[in-house]
Recover the amino acids of this structure.
């Protein structure tokens, strides 16, 4: 077990709380969307801090930042990290906690390596993934998906935000469009806040993540006809907003058919054209988000919605396009990695519980190319992607201890014989147009 | 009856169709929102054309443009006109037809005055009202409401568009922030497309407008809580969008309790925050538009909606603010003016029908300070505020003939003893906050 002092704890907390000043919002959150000046500033802080701790910093073609202790020439790296970008008016902990915890875990282990207490079989790299949140540039989990070869980097660089700015331009504007090769990955570790309330409810300090949920989005466009709100009698209208509102209500209602807490459905993005108080809307663009622990539930909920949308289009005599987007099958983390997290929690002396992740994480992408261990700490009240997101200093400190222990075991070669995770059967996608 | 030649008809049509090139859209509409460069260009054309026809052009403090034949020193004016601004992706006819028709009516009557065929008791002013549509700057019917003293001009000049540009800045940018006094008004005439399909259905060429509808808006803000679409279980959410969607559906459903075609309800403006695909929305701002021929129906529909919104807020444990906005009582046009339109239609030899206006018009504001005559020509299919809005050349020509006859009668003093219209009892407003 790595050695940790109370000074280490104080240093970690000082660094973590310092990061919350970048893009700080009045209500106690942060707003650091990918590629914005505030995101650039916190990433510059990361480079400076890592360099100060003796690491070598590189940046790859999609803007992922890597800070490496090159203990062994030409050896692959254990990667540990998360992301520094946030949702609009997001929380201070989501992503940032995992990056700062990994920085401190690495610094402690470097101390152990230099003191001869840890014999590395791999180098160690702390990673700050670019654009995990996907609020400004879709899809989310962009940097790790590029690095894992799941998405095409050249295409991702041309993705635009709502103002037409490309990923490439945004990366250039914050000095993060790199050309360094990404490190070869031996294994991967990530710690994150749970963003749910299972750990809090069951009073466990650490969650050993076993698998991701099955997730998919449906991009829906409702094509109505623009007309005068005052002069157009109700029978003559093809109101895109009323139809879109019914889709929002359907999207919530569909969960009633399933076990509580086994499925979540939402519409987060919803834009109305022309959006004038006295014009019946001609078009609404919306994105439905479907997630469930069981892929069959996502498939059947999707089918229910697609059929209901077709009936709605016919009933209201307007066209509705539905397109599958960002489809992600359930992915299991290797059992060896889950057990490794449990061993580390036992070493630190905190309670662990196996848990699935409803949210996507970089570890899901990394787990395709290298064995990954993913762990959670509790989120107070389970709230996330909002300014009142909160985790305690005590849980953050214990989580960092567990991460340090996990990474020590990875550096020593504990998962060297483990095969990476595999997605369960890929689900099909199609595009439907209803008139 | 004024004299009209086929050359007059051709001149009118040439001018009207020329205006459709300003802000023309690929699908055959126009996009000339108030204070935009395209709106500035068509207003410059108006000044140039009116000057070429021998009129004197002035601009008042809210940007209304007046083109006057000053036949009599210090006499008040008969005003005739409409507006040149449009909705986003709006139609070519709404407003613009009335301005071009008034320009040509005035030119014909000036010819008659100079030939001694018409003895004026008033001067004649063609008016191009600023910001009738209210899409970029709320409220609508801005220029005429300022001129009639119904709204405070200083406050209107500080109204901002969604980008924070003020009315004052927009007027300056198109060279239309004037300081000339508005003319003294003897009486007012306006011709407009119906924007409904009653005239088409009943095969009447002209509608003699008897009264406006009772209208009001409700500005609604739904305050939910931002959270993660993936990680937040359904029971923990306070989704502002689902609640707002239910309000949209309620707003349509409320008309089921009333006589068809006697009431219209809509939501045209609807904005979601933060509008990210993986964030449960924290806030929705929307505007409900309620209009009915009978004020009691607007009052009762409003009460039904306000009560249902209160119940929704309680049911979903979130706060919903509702505020009355832009409340306009039914206003009757003077019967003398209605009969004058009917006489003019008879002179021209076209069929007329009495009709109410569902849409607001500058004539409703002018009718508070001077007797007003309002007339409609048919809209094909009743569609308006959209690119496929259409009226035939034949109907536009006949309508211009009727307008010319009406204005000739007004110039001769026909409504000099008529009192202006009065709004029926003002309805009450209040603000409600539901938790």
């Amino acid at each position: 077990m790595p050695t940790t002092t109370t000074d280490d704890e104080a240093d970690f907390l000082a660094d973590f709380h310092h990061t919350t000043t970048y893009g700080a919002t009045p209500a106690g959150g942060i707003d650091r969307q990918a590629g914005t000046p505030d995101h650039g500033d916190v990433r510059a802080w990361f480079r400076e801090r890592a360099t100060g701790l003796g690491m070598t910093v590189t940046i790859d073609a999609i803007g992922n930042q890597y800070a490496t202790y090159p203990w062994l020439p030409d050896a692959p790296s254990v990667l540990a990290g998360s992301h520094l970008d946030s949702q609009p008016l997001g929380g201070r902990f989501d992503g940032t906690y995992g990056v700062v915890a990994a920085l401190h875990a690495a610094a402690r282990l470097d101390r152990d390596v230099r003191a001869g207490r840890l014999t590395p079989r791999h180098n160690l790299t702390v990673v700050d993934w670019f654009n995990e949140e996907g609020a400004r540039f879709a899809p989310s989990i962009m940097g790790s998906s590029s690095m894992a070869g799941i998405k095409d980097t050249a295409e991702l660089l041309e993705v635009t935000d709502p103002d037409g700015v490309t990923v490439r331009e945004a990366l250039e504007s914050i000095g993060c469009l790199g050309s360094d090769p990404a490190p070869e990955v031996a294994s991967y570790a990530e710690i994150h806040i749970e963003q749910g309330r299972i750990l809090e409810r069951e009073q466990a300090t650490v969650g050993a993540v076993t698998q991701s949920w099955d997730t998919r989005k449906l991009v829906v466009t409702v094509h109505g006809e623009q007309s005068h709100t005052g002069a157009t009698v109700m029978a003559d209208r093809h109101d895109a907003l009323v139809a879109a509102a019914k889709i929002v209500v359907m999207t919530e209602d569909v969960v009633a058919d399933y076990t509580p807490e086994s499925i979540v459905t939402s519409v987060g993005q919803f834009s109305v054209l022309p959006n004038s108080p006295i014009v019946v809307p001609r078009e609404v663009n919306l994105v439905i988000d479907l997630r469930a622990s069981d892929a069959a539930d996502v498939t059947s909920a999707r089918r229910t919605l697609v059929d209901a949308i077709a009936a709605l289009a016919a009933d209201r005599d307007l066209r509705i396009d539905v397109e599958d987007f960002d489809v992600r099958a359930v992915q299991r983390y290797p059992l060896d990695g889950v057990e490794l997290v449990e061993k580390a929690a036992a070493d630190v002396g905190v309670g662990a519980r196996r848990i699935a992740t409803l949210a996507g994480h970089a570890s899901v992408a990394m787990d395709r190319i290298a064995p990954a261990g993913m762990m959670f700490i509790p989120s107070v009240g389970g709230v996330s992607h909002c300014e009142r997101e909160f985790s305690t200093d005590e849980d953050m400190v214990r989580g960092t201890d567990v991460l340090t222990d996990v990474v020590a075991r990875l550096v020593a070669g504990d998962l060297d014989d483990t095969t990476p995770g595999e997605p369960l059967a890929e689900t099909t996608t199609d595009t439907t147009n209803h008139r």
Chain A touches chain B through 71 residues (CB under 8 Å). Residues 295-316 of chain A form the longest helix (22 residues). Residues 6-212+330-411 of chain A form a domain with the Aminopeptidase fold (CATH 3.40.630.10). Confidence is low (pLDDT under 50) at residues 426-432 of chain A.
